[in-house]
């Protein structure tokens, strides 16, 4: 998952998406998604190591990504680089039981741990799975309403752009820049940049 951003404070929203993200961050305890050695720092706005060079992202980074993603209730969401399952659980809170979330993690042991962490939240509409080797994302007929990528790509991957549904959004760091990709109802995609961050690398092949 991700590293850090320079923004240390958790922003609070005046309504809509902001309020939903703030509520999700308050309701889903990060401590339950950390190894024992890192739990004492669960409230700190910093990334925390979870093994294999991966981290559980710092809360302000996650908040910024979720606000850009603008997740609606009932959405189908793909969470690439799910790690310990914290972002998957947050996304589950945002979509509610009428939506669905699939988290993918390339390290099998972290994926199994993340899956167990998410199961403990009782959000049966969300799960973490081991990513299929050689496959980026999870191609799905009609695409995903939202795609969250928590690892840095060296380029904007066409494979993931193609998995964004019409009317959908993807948030992905490309090198050190946070990129928002939107697809309109006619299928046209646009990309915009939203600040610089540091992430672990996305395995793209």
UniProtKB/TrEMBL annotation:
Gene3D superfamilies: Vaccinia Virus protein VP39 (3.40.50.150). One of its GO terms (biological process) is methylation. Coiled coil: none annotated. CDD domains: AdoMet_MTases (cd02440). GO terms for cellular component: cytoplasm. Its main location: cytoplasm. It is found in: Cytoplasm. This is Protein-L-isoaspartate O-methyltransferase. PANTHER family: PROTEIN-L-ISOASPARTATE O-METHYLTRANSFERASE, PROTEIN-L-ISOASPARTATE(D-ASPARTATE) O-METHYLTRANSFERASE. GO terms for molecular function: protein-L-isoaspartate (D-aspartate) O-methyltransferase activity. It is an enzyme of class 2 (transferase). Its EC number is 2.1.1.77. Keywords: Cytoplasm, Methyltransferase, S-adenosyl-L-methionine, Transferase. SUPFAM superfamilies: S-adenosyl-L-methionine-dependent methyltransferases. Pfam families: PCMT. Belongs to the methyltransferase superfamily. L-isoaspartyl/D-aspartyl protein methyltransferase family.
């Amino acid at each position: 998952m991700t590293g850090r951003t320079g923004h240390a404070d958790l922003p609070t929203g005046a309504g809509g998406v902001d309020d939903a993200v703030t509520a999700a961050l308050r309701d889903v305890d990060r401590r339950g998604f950390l190894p024992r050695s890192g739990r004492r720092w669960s409230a700190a706005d910093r990334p925390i190591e979870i093994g294999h060079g991966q981290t559980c992202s710092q809360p302000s980074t996650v908040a910024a990504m979720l606000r850009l993603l603008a997740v609606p209730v009932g959405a189908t969401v793909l969470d690439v680089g799910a790690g310990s399952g914290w972002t998957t659980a947050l996304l589950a809170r945002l979509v509610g039981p009428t939506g669905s979330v699939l988290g993918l993690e390339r390290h099998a042991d972290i994926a199994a741990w993340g899956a167990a962490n998410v199961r403990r939240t009782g959000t049966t509409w969300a799960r973490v799975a081991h990513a299929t080797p050689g496959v980026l994302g999870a191609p799905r007929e009609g695409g995903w309403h939202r795609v969250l990528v928590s690892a840095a790509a060296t380029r904007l991957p066409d494979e993931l752009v193609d998995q964004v549904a019409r009317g959908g959004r993807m948030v992905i760091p490309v090198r050190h820049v946070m990129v928002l990709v939107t697809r309109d109802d006619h299928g046209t995609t646009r990309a915009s940049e939203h600040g610089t961050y540091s992430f672990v690398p996305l395995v793209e092949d």
